[in-house]
Amino acid sequence: MNANIPVLFRTYPSRETHLGCKVWEAARATSAAPTFFKRLEIGNKQPFIDGGLGCNNPSKLVLAEAKVVFPTRQIGCLVSIGTGQAEIISINKPGFLQQIFQTDVMKALKAISTDCEATHEDMLLLFANSPNTYFRLNVEQGMQGIELFEWEKLANVGAHTVQYLRRNEMNEKLSLIANALKFPRAQLMMEQLGMEILFL
Amino acid sequence: MVTAIDSYNNLAQQVFSDPKRWPVDGKFKATKLEEAIKSVVCDVTGNPEEPLLEVGSASVCRT
User: Fold this and answer.
1) For B12-60, what is the HEC assignment?
2) Which of A23, A95, A101 sits opposite B27 (nearest CB)?
């Protein structure tokens, strides 16, 4: 297990070795949140755990992948959608038994720094000279008490999201996003994206 | 979008409403999660064991 090296599950061919896995395996692997489900092994017994452990905001990975897949194209728009405030999405505390049997997971859990907002700041810097290209939506208030497994609270999630979208500044932001998605203007060449920026 | 939210709601209900009695190696049953995922995959593709790699979709932008 190395949470620092994310694996991309691709539905398209690429230069990288393809894992040859099934749709359900990819879905199962990406939802293997430690303390919730046991990890999944695919192919040559490679264990997978949920990206939330080390990769909560995949914006940099998406850009790096886009650079490889579409090297000559330009970026028109990047929309990042968060799942709530940083402390909200922290994984639930492991139980007593898990603390005994899964010390490696415990260590990894402690090492999680929810990197979402740091990545967001990096993205703002990266797109500073390309107005209306990068957007982030993230429900900032109200999700605090909702745990990952509380399926019966989905209505609350909906209500907080509607509340967030009703805020005054959101109207303008949403029309900018809709416009950027519908009529993307080539803003930034892929080759202008230095890999060193991606891995700040 | 509505279908996706409904599917998620069903899946979460199936998986999280039955926690393990002896929670070693995860609080919830991975087999339940696997069944629920396969059922969604089957509804959409007709094959619960559908491979992830799509044939003939090279460099097609999905927007």
Assistant:
1) HHHHHCCECCCCCCCCECHHHHHHHHHHHHHHHHCCCCCECCCCCCCCC
2) A95
Q: What is the pTM of this model?
A: 0.74
Which of A99, A138, A116 lies closest to A55, judged by CA? Answer: A116
Q: Which of B1, B7, B14, B27 would best serve as a mutation to test chain A binding (most A beta carbons within 10 A)?
A: B27
Q: Quick one: tokens of A78? A: 């990047």
Tokens in use for A55? 């990769």
For chain A, say whether B36 makes contact (Cβ under 8 Å). Answer: no
Query: CA of A143 to nearest chain B CA: how many angstroms apart?
Result: 17
Contact B15/B28 with Cβ under 8 angstroms?
yes
Residues of chain A neighbouring B58 (CB-CB closer than 8 A): 12-13
Helix (H, G, I), strand (E, B) or coil at A194: coil
Indicate yes or no: CB of A22 within 8 angstroms of CB of B50. yes
All residues of chain A having their beta carbon less than 8 Å from the beta carbon of residue B23 are: 95, 97-98
Predicted-complex ipTM score: 0.82
Per-residue pLDDT tens listing for chain A (200 residues): 444 577 888 998 888 777 788 999 999 888 877 778 888 877 766 677 666 555 678 888 888 888 888 888 888 899 998 877 544 344 455 565 555 555 555 444 444 435 677 888 889 988 888 889 999 998 877 776 777 788 888 888 889 999 999 998 999 999 999 999 998 887 677 767 665 555 54
